[in-house]
């Protein structure tokens, strides 16, 4: 899995914690945002920090922060396909891809996107 730099400031941490405490959801836009939030919460609580992440999220991963996400349809057999499968469930992703293929959705970087809820 490739490394990505990220920074989360305390104001963002406070807003996320407040949303969670009030029963709200955290919706990440993109897999980088998912990796960032989940990396910054490894070990328990979400922390304000500037760091790198090499987290590899695959089925069985226990998400702590992100409740829903918007992301592209990713390449088959890719690490990002593993991430979305871990997030929404392997079968749900398989069904979404079958639907996208049947409806001729555009794939990859500048294609159609999907909204996923955590299983």
Distance between the termini: 23 Å
Spatial order of strands in the largest sheet: 2-4-5
Q: Tell me the series of helices and strands, N- to C-terminal.
A: EHEHEEHHE
Q: Roughly what percent helix? A: 25-40%
Shape type: globular
Oligomer: single chain
Total of DSSP H or I helical runs spanning 4+ residues: 4
Q: Could you tell me the strand content as a percent range?
A: 15-25%
Class of secondary structure makeup = alpha+beta
Provide the residue-averaged pLDDT: 93
Rg, Cα atoms, Å: 15 Å
- Tell me about the biggest sheet? 3 strands, mixed
Question: Number of DSSP strands?
Answer: 5
Describe this protein's structure.
With 119 residues, the chain is of the alpha+beta class. It has four helices and five strands. It has helices spanning 10-21, 31-39, 79-88, 90-102; strands at 4-8, 27-29, 49-53, 68-72, 113-117. The strands form two sheets. Strands 2-4-5 form a three-stranded mixed β-sheet. A two-stranded antiparallel ribbon has the order 1-3. α3 (79-88) crosses α4 (90-102). The chain is globular.
């Amino acid at each position: 899995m490739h490394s990505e730099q990220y920074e989360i400031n305390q104001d963002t941490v406070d807003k996320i914690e407040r949303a969670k405490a009030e029963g709200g959801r955290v919706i990440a836009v993109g897999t980088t945002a998912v990796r960032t939030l989940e990396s910054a919460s490894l070990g328990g609580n979400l922390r304000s920090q500037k760091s790198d992440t090499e987290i590899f999220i695959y089925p069985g991963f226990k998400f702590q922060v992100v409740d829903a996400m918007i992301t592209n349809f990713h390449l088959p057999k890719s690490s990002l396909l593993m991430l979305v499968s871990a997030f929404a469930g392997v079968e749900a992703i398989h069904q979404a891809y079958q639907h996208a293929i049947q409806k001729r959705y555009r794939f990859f970087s500048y294609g159609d996107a999907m909204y996923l809820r955590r299983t």
